[in-house]
Specification:
single chain, 264 residues, two-stranded antiparallel sheet, 62% helix, 2% strand, disordered C terminus
């Protein structure tokens, strides 16, 4: 990441320096933008005639800056390196043609100026920037790795959230109150009727105590009855039953007599 940032900054600074250099003196009192491009490729060489803005070295530096910008946008190391090659190539070609005229390329007053050297440095800086940049393939791999890592972190967060939810549900189930069991109270015992009697002492279980019913029986229903009392209650119950059946039978006979008279 730091290499890409450093390479981008260095490429921008180098392209800007290449453009600015042609507006200063390259040799003697003559600016770099005043040298014609055609003079670099003809047999006449460099002459005293001046070029305008788009026919001199300014056009070369402008094209190099445009190629640099395109390379940065496309993250292409080769385009940035091509821009450096353009700057270095035309600057070295100008120096060769200038040496053919004056036979002198020393830096100083009346000779080669620092802006021409700055153009050489700018071309070398563009090459260095292209070497620092990771390139398109490395950028795609880095982006894919970052996306994979982001997706993995998101999956880990989801799994951690699911585990936490399951843990909370398990804790909630463990702390849930147990269902209360209903205990039979003394008031729930049905009082025995005329034909019901408490069980004998021999039927008493270990949980019933010594008597036939639980301890609250005598307080609720009175003392247990003896065998004679139970027989007497049974006879009274049968007498009441016989009397009720006799009364029901008489009622049926009277109803049949009335129906016979109505029919006659």
């Amino acid at each position: 990441m730091w290499r890409n940032t450093l390479g981008t900054v260095l490429a921008v600074l180098a392209a800007a320096a290449a453009i600015i250099s042609v507006f200063f003196h390259w040799y003697g009192s003559r600016d770099g933008r005043l040298y014609k491009l055609t003079q670099l490729f003809t047999s006449e060489g460099i002459t005293r005639s001046h070029a305008n803005l788009l026919t001199g070295l300014f056009l070369v530096m402008l094209v190099a800056a445009a190629v640099t910008l395109l390379g940065l946008l496309l993250m292409s190391r080769w385009l940035v390196a091509l821009a450096g090659l353009i700057v270095l190539g035309f600057t070295i070609l100008w120096m060769v043609r200038q040496y053919q005229v004056d036979d002198n390329l020393t830096v100083g007053d009346g000779n080669l100026k620092f802006p021409a050297v700055l153009a050489l440095i700018s071309g070398a800086a563009l090459w260095l920037a292209s070497a620092l940049m990771p390139g398109r393939r490395a950028a795609r791999l880095a982006a894919a790795g970052h996306g994979h890592q982001h997706g993995r972190h998101r999956q880990e967060r989801k799994e951690r959230k699911d585990r936490q939810g399951r843990k909370e549900r398990e804790e909630g189930e463990g702390n849930a109150p147990e269902p209360r069991q209903r205990t039979v109270q003394a008031e729930d015992t049905v009082r025995p009727g005329p034909w019901q009697h408490p069980p004998d002492e021999s039927d008493a279980g270990p949980e019933r105590g010594t008597g036939g019913y639980h301890e609250g029986y005598e307080e609720r229903y009175g003392p247990e009855r003896t065998g004679e009392q139970r027989d007497r209650d049974a006879q009274e119950g049968r007498g009441i039953h016989d009397e009720r059946e006799h009364r029901d039978g008489r009622g049926d006979d009277s109803g049949d007599g009335h129906r016979g008279r109505d029919a006659a």
